[in-house]
Structure prediction request, 498 residues.
Amino acid sequence: MGSVTDTGSLYSKPVGFIFVFNLIVGAGVLAMPKAFGDAGWLSGSIFLVVLCFFSFVTSTFMLEVMAAGNAWLRLESPVKNASHSDNSIHALSSSETTDEDMPPSQPLLGGGIPYGVHRDLFELTDRIEMGKLASFFFNRVGIVLYYLCIVIYLYGDLAIYAAAMPKALVTVACEDSTSNCTSSSNTSSCSGSTSNLSQTGSCFGRNTVTKDQAYYIFLAVFTLALGPFVFFNVQKTKYLQIVTSITRYVALGMMVVIALKGIVQHGHHASPSTFNVFHLPNLFGNLVYAFMCQHSLPSLITPIRKKKGLTLLLGLDFLTVCSFYALIVFTAITRFQLSEIKDEYTNNFSPAIASVFPSYFIRLFPVFTLSTNFPIIGVTLRNNLKALFHREGHEFPFIIDRIVFPLAAILPPVAVAFATQNLVLLVGITGSYAGVGVQYVVPTMLVWCGRNKLLARIGHYNNHHQSIFRGKVWILVVCVWAVASWIMVTVNNILSRV
Prediction:
């Protein structure tokens, strides 16, 4: 995450829109109906809109700081800048300007090339990841804090994945003797555990294996099957991304259609609560997690061919995602009673609710989509751990580099998944703390430091990718919102356990 890489193949804005949409809509949507229902439809609606807005604000900050990072890179790389355009060479030869002719107030781009020569210092051409941007604009303490924040977030991300996949497999492999869903012409009902898996029921056709035991078996198999990939370098190919995206949206579309069909056929029988303050922390964390995209925007925005109107593109993405989330959660809390909604929403679609094929497809799709992401996130976490502990001029020993760091990336999340199966809790904690840092604090501090450093170096800041929320007051608003969020979540978590 701390590198400057080639932009790769360019693509159009519609393709970029789809990629950003795919990035935002991830595992968080699976736990959203339960968190939304617990907190109440009114508080859920307010938080959904507010957090969508703040995520959009910090995404525009990331767009601005990506362009600022390109400017800083050109200031630090005069050779690349000098050959960037023929117009630059022509400007030098025609004006016959020399280093001595330049006034002291006009900084040089190293090697004697004046800033004004470049056609667009802030042109968004190089893909600069968030970690590299941090190294450009943060001091040593800021860089360490950044890596701590992203590492903690990735640990939570992997713990969510590690718990979600075994739970999905358990719902298919085990018959629940206490959670029977019935569907009649008038209504439908399900009873049973909604957070942790019930210990009753038979698994693998054997009455001696409980659901908890099956969960641990699947978790162990999953760890042994996917864990070794973290010891190597893996990446998600374009075709695998296409397949997982299609699978995700077919499954989510099926859930919406089946829920709407149930509402039309059986009427509205659910009675969602309006407001529940003690469940707000989990809702807040879930929504922060569900709108997370800032750390990956450089990889998706930079390759867009025409850069004009990128802010509008991001705005349309967030508006679409917010509407899609609202469709998912409101069909869920209208179709099912609150006590029926599982913390992994896909588990609500048993054969009693949906026909056999849609039921298995919906309940198993997290296994495929999340299992393809787990090794990639594990490798990202491993590399960020290396960056956190790296010291200039010192190489890690082979055992530390190839054994210790991969194990440090794998074992803690798996241990958390062994300790709890509560996805709502995992998503809530991950989003409420580390997620707030990655989504709000890091982009805001990056754009503030980037503006100040570039202004001090070149005397002005003509960044045409500057955020529409460019006033200093927005820096303060986002920072206050982040700190207030941490305080609110912590206080509510303490009060709810007293």
Remarks:
- The chain has 16 helices and six strands.
